[in-house]
Structures are given as C-alpha cells and as structure tokens.
C-alpha cells in the first residue's frame, strides 16, 4: 500500500484538529447550552477586562506610528537589495480582500443603520445620530482595526524575510525566547493560530452563505432560504476556493483579488451616482474631519461615565477589537506572505491608510445613503430591519434605480470576497500546519477546504455558528497580550538590525597600513585573557604615555599619569583651572562572546564565553573603543587626535558654559 505523503507537523496539526473538532461537535450537539456557557465567559471578559483590548490596540497604533516616522522605517522586509514580488495594485487588492472584504458587504448598510437606531443614542436628534453612526463605523473599521493586522503582518514578514525564520507566529517571539521558539511555547502559539484561523473562516463562511442565499431569494433565483441551498452554495464556493488555493498566490488569489476590487469599485460608483450624491460627498468630507477630531477620544474612551452606552460599547467596540484580534493570525500571516521586499514605512502606510480610506468611502456611500433613504424615502422601513442584516443591503437596493443589477453585482462580489478570504485562509492554515513547508501535496489543501465546508454546514444546520464565534472572541484576550510581546520583540530586533548596519570599521583599524599585517592577523584571531591585556597595558600603553608626558613638558604642558586597579587601567591627565581636564585612559574590559561563536569550528578559537580587551575612556564620558591592535606610536597618535579635538572644543566661545570647570 502506498504511503500518503504529508508535510504536516504533527505537533501542531493533531492538537489543532482535536480542539477544532471538539469545539465544533460540542457546538453542534448542544448549541444552546454551549452558547450560554460561552456567553457568560465572554461577558465577564468584555465587562471586566475590556481595558486590556483598549490599551493593547492603543499600543499597536502608537507603535506602528512610531516605526513609520523613525529611522527603522527604511528597513526592508527582506535583504537590502530585495524587490517586491507583486505590483502595488495587486498587493493592496490581496491584503484588502483577505482583511475584511466580506465584512464590508455584510455590514456596510447594517452597521451604520444599527448605530443610527440604537437606544444608546436615542436621545439625540437625527443629525447627531447620523453623525455618530458614521463616526463609530469609521472607528471600528479604520486605522485601529488595520493596526492589529499590520502589527502581526509586519512582525511575521520581518522575522521571516529579514531573519530568515519560518513564516510562523512563533518566529515573532524569537528575540525574547531565542531557541525556545521551537519548543512547547512556539507549538502552542502555532496551535492557537491554526484554530483561530479555522474558526474565523468557518463563521465567515456560515454568515456569508446566509446573506448570499437571502439575496438570491429576493432576486427569485432560488425559491427560499433553506439548508439545502446553503449546502449547494458552500460546495460551490469552497470548491472555487480550493482551486484558487492550489493555483497559488500568483495565479488564483491575485487574479480574484484584482477582479473583485475592480467590481467593488464599480458597485461603489453605481450606488454613489444612483443615490443622494451631493449628500454622500458632503457627509464623507465631514465624516473624515469628525474622525480626525475625535481620534484620541475614541481611542481611549471606555464609556465609564456614560452608563447608558456601556452595553453598546461592549457589544460593538470591544466585540470588534476581539474579532479583529482573533483574525490577526490569519490576515497577518497572509499579508506577510505577499509583502517581501517592501520597506517597513511602505508596509505600514499601505496597510493602515489605503484600506482605511477605501473603507471610509465605502461605508459612507452605503451607510449614509441608507440612513438618508430611511429618513427621506423609506419612512423608517430600513431601520426596522436591523435585526435582519442578511437582507438589509438588498432591501436598500430596492429604493435605488437598477435594483436588480445592484443586487446581482453585490452577490457576485460577496461570493468572490468569500472565495478570496477562504482560499487565502486555506493557504494560511496549510502554512501553519506544515510550519511553512515549501512544497506540500495538493491533498492537504483539499483536506482543509473540505473540513472547512463540512464543519460550517454542520454548525449552520445545528445553529452552532454563534457558539463558534463567541469562542473565537474569547481566545482574542490572551492573543492581545501575545501581540504586545510581538511589538516588544520586533523593536528589540530592529534596534539590533539598525546597529548592525550602522556599524563602521573598528576605530583601531583606521591608521593601519600593510606593514604589520601578519602580527595584526594573529591579534584578530586571538581572544585575549586578562593577563594578556595587562601585559599590553604594561608594554605598549604605559611607554606611550611616558613619552607623551615628556613631550608635553617640553611644550610647557604639565601632564600626569595614573595607574589604577580593579579594573586595571592607566590614564594620562592634563589638569586645567578654567575648563574641564583632558583625560585619555585605557582599561581592561571584559566582553561576553556569543555561545554559537564559541562552538563554531571555523571561527577564531575561544576557550570560554568571556574575553578581555583594552578599551579607551575619556574625561567627557564619551564611549571608548578597543585599542588592542594599536602599536605604541599609534597610541601616541590617537591621544594627540583627541587632544586636538579637545583644544578645538574648549577654544570656541559658544562652548564656554558646556566645558567650563564648575569647581
């Protein structure tokens, strides 16, 4: 019997599959009791620990903003000479389609209308309710949401393409955990990422299918919204997703994403010009200003002083933060996969600003049009449908010309949006399960797609999708803390990265000629003991200082030499009354050598991880450097260079306050 080939990592895939199947079966067998139990946990988290989400997302936004304008923004996600793999349009199309494409179709009318009709804002007038509806929709789908995706995607892309680690969430903690990322902690993070991705795609598939079925019913293409037609729809869409995933990023996913973004823009323009155009454009302009003015208030607002809005805050803002965080492993990994060769600044600017701007335009065109239509034409009929978000968009289209054309186009876009989310999700799940194996058999891609379809239909039929969604929201809490650690690890790695490329030649190599190259090679490959440094100070440094003292005396400059212990050091000092003293010293400095360096055969021999070298120090506190390669005459020359610098500084009138001797 032929053995089935697989690239799956059993330590990641088996625990993930057991947990996925366990949760899905439990949600299908006892949907009501499971949902009730999970709801209690979710409400406790949202009510008592909502500040964790608020602070975590604030940190993400501030951190990405800092990186954008810092010197680290020029670092590439890959080698310094790497080039982007995809065109800018294709890149933005794919990250947008994977990020929240289907959510825009599902909530573009439903969310603004729900905020508009919410009892939490019922006391305000029409204008304020409409303005608040747009503002909070912008808030939930704007920079804060994309900062979540951006942080995970940036960390993954950086460590995968710059450090050449596996494209895996565990790699994002490498600066903190080092080799332990390959152990149980790394495996746990990957298991979490795989389960979170599967749950997110499954719930999206379930809710998306219901919306498509509802739209087809309204168009008269299918007679009813039923489980039979939902099975047919799931089978078609998952089959397309599997074909697209097998084709790879460069073919199926890219082509579908490009086509869908073009179709979405076409639908957007139709609604813009068929609806209240002047009102839409004016409200978009005002909405952008309102969002900017309230950006920081929204970021930190916990509604603690507005008790009537607290339930709304938990069920919308905190739920959204948890939902975006739960999707971050999937979306972040996919964004990372397509972002090799971009600079950090380019990545952050594109991921945060471009999708946010498109979302704002989209939500204004659909949401504000729906509110205007509800007030001026529908007489509240749309507002009465907030409990039926599956049908709300299609009902809104009924109040516009060419309603059937709009509905057909919307259904096509929802289907493609789902396929682009599902195919990238299948690709990501296989990537996580195989720990980024390069050449996986096609049956694995088919396996994840079929499992996705079967479990989504099982939960859809049993009414367990809500339980799965709540479970996903709960798991977002620990992952928000892990994401903060991603930011810490990324900053630590970027500092090391920048220092590495900023490193110049050793100061001690500047005066070199080829005269003593054999002796210098011996010094380079020899790591000194403490006794060797002491001998260098005794045989080279002290004679150099003695000669300098004599020459200074001949030029009417009095210098003193001091030799001190613990650590051994020697210094030449020229005292002054009006300005600070000039001091040049050399001390015995200990240095830790990396463990891998000690073990490497084809590197200089090191007996242990501690070595010593002679290091300079100065009276003004500047950082010194290694002088073990200097000859006696080169040491004399180096002291004179610093003395010349010292005279140049103290002779400037502008420096009087800085260099004056306070004593």
From TrEMBL:
Membrane-topology annotation of the record: Multi-pass membrane protein
Pfam families: BCCT
Domain of life assignment: Bacteria
Database matches in InterPro entries: BCCT_CS (IPR018093), BCCT_transptr (IPR000060)
Transmembrane segments: 12-30, 50-67, 88-109, 138-161, 185-207, 227-249, 261-292, 312-335, 347-365, 405-433, 445-464, 470-491
Keywords, in A-Z order: Cell membrane, Membrane, Transmembrane, Transmembrane helix, Transport
The UniProt record lists the keyword Transmembrane: yes
Compartments, record wording: Cell membrane
Keyword hit for Metal-binding: no
Protein family: Belongs to the BCCT transporter (TC 2.A.15) family.
Protein name, per record: BCCT family transporter
Organism expressing this protein natively: Sphingobacterium corticis
């Amino acid at each position: 019997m032929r053995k089935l080939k697989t690239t799956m990592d059993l330590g990641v895939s088996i625990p993930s599959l057991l947990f996925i199947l366990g949760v899905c079966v439990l949600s299908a067998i006892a949907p009501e009791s499971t949902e009730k139990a999970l709801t209690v946990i979710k409400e406790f988290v949202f009510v008592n620990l909502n500040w964790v989400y608020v602070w975590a997302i604030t940190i993400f936004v501030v951190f990405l903003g800092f990186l954008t304008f810092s010197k680290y923004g020029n670092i590439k996600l890959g080698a310094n000479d790497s080039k982007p793999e995809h065109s800018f349009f294709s890149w933005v199309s794919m990250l947008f389609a994977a990020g929240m494409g289907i959510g825009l179709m599902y909530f573009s009318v439903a969310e603004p209308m729900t905020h508009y009709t919410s009892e939490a804002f019922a006391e305000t007038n029409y204008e304020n309710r409409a303005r608040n509806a747009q503002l909070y929709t912008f808030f939930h789908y704007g920079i804060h949401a994309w900062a979540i995706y951006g942080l995970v995607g940036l960390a993954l892309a950086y460590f995968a393409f710059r450090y050449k680690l596996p494209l895996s969430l565990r790699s994002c903690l490498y600066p903190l955990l080092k080799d332990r990322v390959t152990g149980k902690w790394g495996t746990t993070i990957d298991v979490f990422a795989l389960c979170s991705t599967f749950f997110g795609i499954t719930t999206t598939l379930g809710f998306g299918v219901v919306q498509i079925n509802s739209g087809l019913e309204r168009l008269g293409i299918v007679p009813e919204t039923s489980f039979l037609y939902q099975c047919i729809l799931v089978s078609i869409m998952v089959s397309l997703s599997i074909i697209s995933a097998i084709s790879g990023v460069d073919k199926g996913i890219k082509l579908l994403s490009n086509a869908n973004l073009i179709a979405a823009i076409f639908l957007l323009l139709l609604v813009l010009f068929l609806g209240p155009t002047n009102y839409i454009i004016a409200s978009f302009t005002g909405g952008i200003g309102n969002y900017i003015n309230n950006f920081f208030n929204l970021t930190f607002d916990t509604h603690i002083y507005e008790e009537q809005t607290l339930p709304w805050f938990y069920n919308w803002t905190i739920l959204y933060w948890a939902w975006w965080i739960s999707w971050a492993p999937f979306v972040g990994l996919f964004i990372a996969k397509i972002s090799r060769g971009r600079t950090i600044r380019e990545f952050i600017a594109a991921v945060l600003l471009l999708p946010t701007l498109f979302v704002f335009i989209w939500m204004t065109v659909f949401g504000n049009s729906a509110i205007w239509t509800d007030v001026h034409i529908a007489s509240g009929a749309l507002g009465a449908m907030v409990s039926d978000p599956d049908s709300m968009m299609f009902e809104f289209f009924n109040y516009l010309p060419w309603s059937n054309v709009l509905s057909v186009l919307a259904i096509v876009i929802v289907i493609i949006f789902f396929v682009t989310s599902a195919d990238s999700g299948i690709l990501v799940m296989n990537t996580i399960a195989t720990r980024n194996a390069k050449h996986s058999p096609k049956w694995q891609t088919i396996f994840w797609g079929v499992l996705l379809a079967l479990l989504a239909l099982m939960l859809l039929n049993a009414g367990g999708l809500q339980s799965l969604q709540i479970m996903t929201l709960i798991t977002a809490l620990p992952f928000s803390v892990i994401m903060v650690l991603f930011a810490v690890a990324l900053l630590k790695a970027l500092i090391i990265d920048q220092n590495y490329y900023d490193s110049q030649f050793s100061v001690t190599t500047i005066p070199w000629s080829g005269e003593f190259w054999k002796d210098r090679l011996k010094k380079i490959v020899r790591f000194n003991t403490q006794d060797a440094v002491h001998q260098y100070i005794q045989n080279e440094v002290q004679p150099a200082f003695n000669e300098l003292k004599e020459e200074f005396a001949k030029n009417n400059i009095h210098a003193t030499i001091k030799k001190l212990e613990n650590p051994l050091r020697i210094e030449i000092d020229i005292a002054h009354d009006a300005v600070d003293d000039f001091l040049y010293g050399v001390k015995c400095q200990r240095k830790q050598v990396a463990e891998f360096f000690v073990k490497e055969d084809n590197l200089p021999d090191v007996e242990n991880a501690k070595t010593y070298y002679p290091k300079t120090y100065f009276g003004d506190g500047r950082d010194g450097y290694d002088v073990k390669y200097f000859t006696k005459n080169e040491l004399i020359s180096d002291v004179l260079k610093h003395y010349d610098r010292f005279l140049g500084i103290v002779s400037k009138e502008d420096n009087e306050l800085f260099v004056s001797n306070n004593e």
